[in-house]
Predict the structure.
Amino acid sequence: MKYVQLGNSGLIVSKLAFGAMTFGSGNIPSVYKVGEDQAQELVDRALAAGINFFDTADAYADGQSEEMLGRLLGTRRKETIIATKAGNRVGPGLLQTGLSRKHLFDACEASLARLNTDYIDLYIVHKTDPFTPLEETLDALNDLVRQGKVRYIGYSNWPAWMAAQAIQMQRERGWATFINGQMYYSLVGRDIEHDTIPFMKNNGVGLTVWSPLAGGFLSGKYTRDNLNDANNRLSGFDFLPHDKEWGFTVLDSIRDIAREHDVTPAQISLAWLLAQPQVSSVLVGSSKISQLEDNLRTVELNLSTEQLAALNQLTRPTPLYPNWFTTMTLDARIAEALK
């Protein structure tokens, strides 16, 4: 396993993180489907491979994911980094959601109990909350850190402008500062390259990646013929927007590269992410030990410069304004002189 500091912090995390979203059962059977015995095997194998970073959330399988992860880590809790999240709805009550001080305090206490721990290593706000002032959310997170219930804080699924505003406010007021942004990123979903990644690089925020295989699409098990089969995961949980026909064109190229290395398309897709300099850690969620073994081998897979360039070119996102204008008007003489 390889390790990296997460953002501008002393927190050392494995380049692959284990995502426990599949633990438990619930209203999305194609996602929440891993029982206790199978989960124990997955956790044991992840630890044996050197993974020290485990990710869950209070909303996964109505809290079952947190409960199972805490129970399965057991006495090995001190060896690991647990990230959990708050913000999504966790009950029918009007206030059982969002990023208000009330809900974050309630959610943190509930997560601590389910995880059977007295602190959370990395507490992540799971989404934005347009109904709560940003200052209130950040003040509450700072208090949780000062109380010792949370060690580090991060955000997920926030636009770059909001994260920038938050970090400026945190620094000005001496509050605990975000060290991590957990964002969706894949070969068929490179939107964060427009603004989010440049912002993170400039501010020392570590990027962790969720759904690196685009909900399983880039695993290679889907074809144009079986994509709509009722029993596959994407039929029951397909919420990541991308042009599927274009995606299959991308997969064709991924398969070609996979054959050159005698590996799977999933390994190529993960290796591309691990080769991106701003990526700190990639979350791999496995429901079978064979999937986890496949993912673990990615750490030692090195794509050639030519292969990386080919994948970059094939999947490069369309430039947005004013980004394209900035690139178009870059002074070439100065750029050359400063090389």
